[in-house]
Amino acid sequence: MLRKWLHTTLRVHNTNKYSAKTKLKAATNIVNFVSNIRYSQIIDQIRVMEIEILDARNSKVLAKCTAQPSSTIKDLKVQVHSANKKLTIHRQALRLEIRGKTLKDSDTIESLDLRNGAKLYLKDLGPQIGWSTVFLAEYAGPLLVYLWVYQRPWIFYGDTTTASFTTTAHIAAACYTIHYAKRLLETIFVHRFSHATMPIGNLFKNCMYYWGFTAYVAYHVNHPLFTSPSMAQVYAGLAGFIFSELGNLSIHINLRNLRPPGTTVRRIPEPDSNPFTVLFNFVSCPNYSYEVLSWLSFSFMTQCLPALIFSAVGMYQMTIWALGKHRNYKKEFKDYPKQRKSIIPFIL
């Protein structure tokens, strides 16, 4: 359409059969058309700005990026990666100040009120590894370790051919297997992670925690000298464990449904038709609440001190995570329910 209009206008201007007035009008149209193009180009050049990316450790310039008001932080990360192949986009944390808050990938230059010549500081998060990879490794380990110790290997117990297993030891092995098999399946089919990667150092730290505690608990529960509590206590603990595992799974499915596939959308979690999710009315992180209850039930069922220590350490860590998430929810959503606690209803 534009080409046809321009061709017709030029033909009018260059053909003698048209009046001088018509030719003047055609010439004016051509001048206005060219002027508008040059004006648009100038405006685009004015709106394009340069952003300096500095190393947060020493303020050394890592890259100079070009951006427009609609450009996002992720766009800048892509340019930094082009200038420095070691700094993948998941390895970069961009901030307005050296010790400031990490900016979101979706933040735009305009929303941050950045001007030409602005500076951003980059913290190198180090080598990264996928969240799913870490979860699979840290959850597969306990499953294998527990079942191996459950066989009473000679290296731990010596000759145990004449020693028998208690019913509690069998139930405990089944519970451990169910828990970590559930975790593996959730990682593959349920979880939608808000971040694609984490520092690779977390892989070794997390595996040492889960694998080490598993060996510690399994050694005592499967020991030939292990003394089981009463079966009434065992079955009560088992009931609590099953209830908590179902609750934990229900919360994970609920959280999955909050986030559309392939996005990092965050919404206020709310109960759904599943009765286990009613705990959202009281705490921000009911998945942690159910997780803690699972291991407390396992400890009660086995009456095993190492299991109780594992539960206590896990509860401490999950409480820290829950408090952080609870603060973030209240900060992000102005209408966040005021009656909710972080992990323990009415208390914490």
From TrEMBL:
<keyword id="KW-0521">NADP</keyword>
<dbReference type="Pfam" id="PF02544">
    <property type="entry name" value="Steroid_dh"/>
</dbReference>
<protein>
    <recommendedName>
        <fullName>very-long-chain enoyl-CoA reductase</fullName>
        <ecNumber>1.3.1.93</ecNumber>
    </recommendedName>
</protein>
<keyword id="KW-0256">Endoplasmic reticulum</keyword>
<dbReference type="InterPro" id="IPR001104">
    <property type="entry name" value="3-oxo-5_a-steroid_4-DH_C"/>
</dbReference>
<dbReference type="GO" id="GO:0042761">
    <property type="term" value="P:very long-chain fatty acid biosynthetic process"/>
</dbReference>
<dbReference type="InterPro" id="IPR049127">
    <property type="entry name" value="TECR-like_N"/>
</dbReference>
<dbReference type="InterPro" id="IPR029071">
    <property type="entry name" value="Ubiquitin-like_domsf"/>
</dbReference>
<feature type="transmembrane region" description="Helical">
    <location>
        <begin position="305"/>
        <end position="324"/>
    </location>
</feature>
<keyword id="KW-0444">Lipid biosynthesis</keyword>
<keyword id="KW-0560">Oxidoreductase</keyword>
<keyword id="KW-0472">Membrane</keyword>
<dbReference type="Pfam" id="PF21696">
    <property type="entry name" value="TECR_N"/>
</dbReference>
<comment type="similarity">
    <text>Belongs to the steroid 5-alpha reductase family.</text>
</comment>
<dbReference type="InterPro" id="IPR000626">
    <property type="entry name" value="Ubiquitin-like_dom"/>
</dbReference>
<keyword id="KW-0275">Fatty acid biosynthesis</keyword>
<keyword id="KW-0443">Lipid metabolism</keyword>
<keyword id="KW-1133">Transmembrane helix</keyword>
<dbReference type="GO" id="GO:0102758">
    <property type="term" value="F:very-long-chain enoyl-CoA reductase activity"/>
</dbReference>
<keyword id="KW-0812">Transmembrane</keyword>
<keyword id="KW-0276">Fatty acid metabolism</keyword>
<dbReference type="GO" id="GO:0005789">
    <property type="term" value="C:endoplasmic reticulum membrane"/>
</dbReference>
<feature type="domain" description="Ubiquitin-like">
    <location>
        <begin position="49"/>
        <end position="122"/>
    </location>
</feature>
<dbReference type="InterPro" id="IPR039357">
    <property type="entry name" value="SRD5A/TECR"/>
</dbReference>
<comment type="pathway">
    <text>Lipid metabolism; fatty acid biosynthesis.</text>
</comment>
